[in-house]
Amino acid sequence: MARIVGVELPKEKRMDVALRSIYGIGPTRAAEILGRTQIDPAIRSKDLSEADASKLTSFIQSEYRVEGELRREVTGNIKRLMEISCYRGNRHKRSLPVRGQRSHTNARTRKGPRRAVGGRKK
C-alpha cells in the first residue's frame, strides 16, 4: 500500500486520482507532480513501486506545502482575520458565509439546523 506524506492512498484508484486524497493536492497539481516525476498517471496506487513512492514523497515535500503544514497555515490565517476583526474575520466568528453569499434564506450548511424563535404553542 502506498503511503505518501503520511497519507495512505486508496489502493484501487489511478495515481492521478489517488494523489488528490492528500490535503493540498487537486487535479491540476496531481497531474503536474506525476508529469515532473515521470510516473504513469494510469498506474494503480497498489502497483506503485517503493522507488516511485519515495520519489513522489521527496518531490512533494520539497516543492509544496501539504497536509499538516498547510492546515496550520490556513487556520493561522483565519485566526489572524478574527483577531483584527475585519469583515471576513467577523463572518468566521459568527459562522456565516464569508464570501458574499446570500444568507437570509440559504446558508443552512454553514449556519446549522434552524433554531426555534418563539416559545412553544399551548
Describe it:
The protein has helices spanning 15-18, 27-37, 50-63, 67-83, 87-93, 108-111, and strands spanning 3-4, 7-8. It is 47% helix and 3% strand. It contains six helices and two strands. By secondary structure, the chain is mostly helical. Strand 1 and strand 2 (7-8) form a beta hairpin. The longest helix is centred in the middle third of the chain and has 17 residues, at 67-83. The mean pLDDT is 91. The radius of gyration is 21 Å and the shape is elongated. The protein has a two-stranded antiparallel ribbon with strand order 1-2.
What descriptive keywords fit this protein?
single chain; 122 residues; mainly alpha; two-stranded antiparallel ribbon; 2 strands; 47% helix; 3% strand; elongated
Q: What general outline do the C-alpha atoms trace?
A: elongated
In terms of quaternary structure, what is this?
single chain
How far apart are the first and last residues' alpha carbons, in Å?
61 Å
Largest sheet: 2 strands, antiparallel
Number of contiguous helices: 6
Strand line-up across the major sheet: 1-2
Residues in helices, as a percent range? 40-55%
Q: Which H/E pattern describes the elements?
A: EEHHHHHH
What class would the helix/strand composition place it in? Answer: mainly alpha
The total count of strands amounts to 2
Rg is 21 Å
Strand content: under 5%
**Mean of pLDDT:** 91
Any low-confidence stretches, pLDDT <50, length ≥5?
A: none
Structure, briefly:
It contains six helices and two strands.
Q: What's the arrangement of secondary structure elements?
A:
Layout: E1 3-4, E2 7-8, H1 15-18, H2 27-37, H3 50-63, H4 67-83, H5 87-93, H6 108-111
